[in-house]
Design goal:
single chain, 9-stranded mixed beta sheet, 15 strands
Length: 400
């Protein structure tokens, strides 16, 4: 099968997301997704990667290798790796559809029929979960528990990092943040695991202080309390607390996470299929984590396509312990975009046996999207110079 077109779709309603479709000469299509900053990603898809796709065999691994080499010249992490991720997901979807198999089967078969999920408390529409954990954490936890969730994630300290630049937290603010977790635990006890997200807002001493304050309430983990820049600093945090340390969706690819694993900086590996390099790379990250006897918990705050890819990883990778979901997105955003894919019910995610990811975009969604398409034509050329390491082999870009 030869790739003959690549298309991007931007939605004026849900503006943070970008969808990528690849099409083959047999008519098979595959769908990928990433976010945020879709305009930058769209540019990378068409201007950087289309020439590595069009006219070539449908091969996720070949594309990934050449694409990653091509962006090494300018530094790989950012919009280009998000574009690579979305294309890789689309290629796997197309490949699975071409042989009429679900993604999990194509990846080697399911290792479990369902995977445990946790709810990240982002609010959207009729599900104001962020306000819920900030204003009535125990009530929100009961509501989630009644729906079958046994784990949730909150970020009660974020507002306090702004004024100090993350270098100090007032005792009363520390107590207020900790009360979010203590209120949940006092009501539900071990019936609800609570993860605490830091959104990289704090320095090392303050991160240690936050973790120590949380220790009596046994949170499921602390996540990204610091910027993911120094594996040594993360190791110091891990050694200073009994709370498991997880990270980081802000680190892309196996090459980015490897120094953290080598430093002994993590208890749990948490990367994102739509950011770290797609399905191809997420599997390799998980295999590397397994060498270090560590579990993987795929980060996922996405639309229906990347969410389905995260669940597919969760069903097919042995050392995945649970998968992130956002119920407000599952109920308020996904149904406005697509049908099929995965299902979350009773605190677990499953997928149908439909080919590929099983996600089908709705006609109304397609009609409102802003679409850009690059097709194979007699004038299409492959930018081989970029993949060999010679940035000037194809001449000077007009935009330079």
């Amino acid at each position: 099968m030869i790739v003959v077109a690549v298309e991007t779709l931007r939605d004026p309603v849900h503006r943070e997301f970008l969808w990528v479709r690849v099409e083959t000469d047999t008519g098979v299509q595959g769908l990928g997704e990433t976010m945020p900053k879709p305009l930058a990603v769209e540019q990378a898809v068409h201007e950087r990667f289309a020439s590595l796709l069009l006219g070539r065999e449908l091969s996720p691994e070949l594309f990934w290798s050449e694409a990653f080499s091509s962006i090494g010249y300018t530094g790989y992490a950012g919009a280009e790796t998000r574009a690579l991720s979305a294309i890789d997901i689309a290629l796997w979807d197309a490949l699975a559809r071409s042989v009429d198999l679900p993604i999990a089967t194509l990846l080697g078969g399911k290792v479990r029929d369902r995977v445990r999920v946790y709810n990240t408390c982002v609010g959207f529409g009729s599900w104001p979960d962020r306000e819920g954990f900030l204003e009535r954490p125990a009530d929100l936890a009961r509501e989630l528990s009644d729906e079958g969730y046994s784990a949730m994630k909150v970020w009660p300290f974020d507002a306090y990092s702004v004024g100090s630049g993350g270098h100090w937290i007032a005792p009363q603010d520390l107590a207020t943040g900790v009360s979010t977790v203590s209120d949940i635990k006092n009501v539900l006890g071990d019936g609800m695991d609570v993860a605490v997200e830091g959104h990289s807002g704090w320095d090392l001493p303050t991160s240690i202080k936050l973790a120590h304050a949380l220790e009596p309430f046994s949170p499921m983990w602390v996540e990204d309390l610091m910027q993911a820049r120094s594996p040594n600093a993360w190791r110091q945090l891990r050694e200073a607390t009994s709370v498991p340390v997880t990270g980081s969706e802000r680190v892309f690819t196996r090459f980015g996470i490897h120094p953290f694993l080598e430093a002994g900086a993590l208890d749990i590996v948490n990367q994102d299929v739509a950011w770290t390099g797609g399905i191809s790379e997420m599997r390799k990250v998980a295999a590397m984590a397994e060498v270090f006897e560590l579990p993987v918990t795929p980060h996922n705050c996405h639309g229906p396509v990347a969410a389905a890819a995260s669940v597919a990883i969760g069903l097919s990778v042995p050392n995945v312990s649970l998968v992130e979901t956002v119920r407000s997105f599952e109920r308020g955003i996904h149904p406005d975009i697509a049908v099929g894919g995965h299902t979350v019910e009773g605190g677990f995610a499953t997928m149908s046996d439909a080919p590929g990811l099983g996600v089908e975009l709705l006609p109304g969604f397609l009609e409102r999207c802003i679409r850009r398409r690059t097709e194979l034509s007699p004038s299409t050329t492959v930018a081989a110079g970029w993949t060999t390491g010679d940035p000037w082999a194809g001449g000077v870009d007009e935009g330079m």
